Amino acid sequence: MSKFSDMPKVAPCAQFALVAIFLAVFCLSTSHAQAANRHRIPQAPLNLGTTQYVVRGPYSHKNMSVYLIHGKAKRLANENFLTLDIGLATGRVLIREHRSASVGSVLVYNGSNRPLYLQEGERISGGRQDRIFVMPVVIAPRTGPVIVPCMCIERSRWSGRHAFRSARGQLLAPRRVRMTANLSIDQNSVWSQVTSTKADYAKRFRTLNSNSNLNEALESRAVANAILPYINGLNDAKREIATALGMGVAIDGKIEEINMWTNGTLMKQMYPKLVATYAMEAVATGKHKADSPAAADIASMLGQLGKRKRVDAINQDNQVEIRSTGKSVISRTYFRGYAIRLQWVPLDKGMKISERARTPLDGSKAPAFPKNLNDELSPGPAVQSQSQEGNYDIKPMSAGPGSSSPSR
To answer: What integer is the mean pLDDT of 238-262?
Structure first.
């Protein structure tokens, strides 16, 4: 007699129920394992100055990949920066033409109690011509007018009112347009890039190309519809930006741009603009899938130092150091001697870097580039500033290291 003969027999319906329970538990555990694997995003260490960061990614959709840079910045980390679109929408920020309007600059008033951050490539509409800002700028609270350099993206118009508004949508100018404006300091080169970009987008997106204004293409419904699947497809990255200070983007397997800020607020506010802008460029390439660079590749790009080409200054507060390796450009933005932002971009074929530095447009003398920088965004150990440790609030009319207060 079998030793199992005395065991109670299980009815067929009960057997079916047990099998169903087993399958449900197995499927549930499998789905949890798959979800866990999805969150095991590759990462690579990154050391800049005295601060340690981690690069995580890729988060990919079709031929576009996003990388997030996590870390804890010490200085300016708690500043509640105001951005252009919010400032203009609330009336806290005003942008005007000069009385004797000039293509290369506008007047910006920051009437808020928060420092205003302007990103290069941000578009403004109105005035005598639509413009883009050409370099990152911070304007202290309750300050203005500040003369801010810009370039025209609408060649054929020179008429209208003096006031500007934020351009529709979240798109920045495409990278080649804004980097040409930043690096070449040549309006004709920018117009040439606008013309070629509009022709390309008319072909790729079937956008109108009836005038010289870049905004005609960027604000079209065709572009908005085309980039939406990319924005939705990268939601995994969006859910992880709460603790991020920077991001990288790759298209068709090539790293297109890396940005880092020493302030999480700026990262959160710039992230949707950069993702939407590169989604547009990813669609424009016509490819549907590509291999993604590793997170370590992003880290190695940010570790490049390069040779200094120039230091731009628009006033006593704002400076941008531009370096190049010959194949890439590394820019660091400083406000009153404190690092605000680090950018890496490839140096595209035919793109030239002017060695003629921008100088203050208000007629003041360009400040000396500080030798002792509070810099969390440079390779190697950072040199501590002479200023008091811990006093990093951006106050109106207060001088930072090596700078003087901006004019009201």
So the answer is: 94
Pairing status of strand 43-48 against strand 51-61: antiparallel
354 lies in a domain? Answer: no
- Domain, as residue range, for 117: 43-346
Q: How far apart are CA 64 and CA 87, in angstroms?
A: 31
pLDDT tens for 14-58 read 555 554 554 444 444 444 444 444 457 889 888 776 678 899 999
Total domain count, the chain: 1
3-class SS of residue 112: coil
Structure-token match 């731009």, residue found = 312
**Cβ distance 306 to 328 under 8 Å?**
yes
3-state SS, one letter per residue, for 283-347: HHCCCCCCCCCCHHHHHHHHCCCCEEEEEEECCCCEEEEEEECCCEEEEEEEECCEEEEEEEEEC
Higher pLDDT, residue 193 or 46: 193
- Alpha-carbon distance of 110 to 143, in angstroms, equals 5
The β-bridge relationship of strands 116-118 and 82-83 is parallel
Distance CA 396, CA 393 (A): 10
Res. 397: pLDDT tops 50: no
Token pair for 343: 């950018």
- Alpha-carbon 279 to chain mean position: 13
**394 occurs within a structural domain:** no
Residue 380 placed within a domain: no
Name the residue with higher pLDDT: 407 or 343: 343
According to DSSP, the residues that pair with 64 across neighbouring strands are: 61, 251
pLDDT-derived band at 139, boundaries 50, 70, 90: very high
The per-residue pLDDT of the chain, averaged, comes to: 84
Amino acid at 35: A
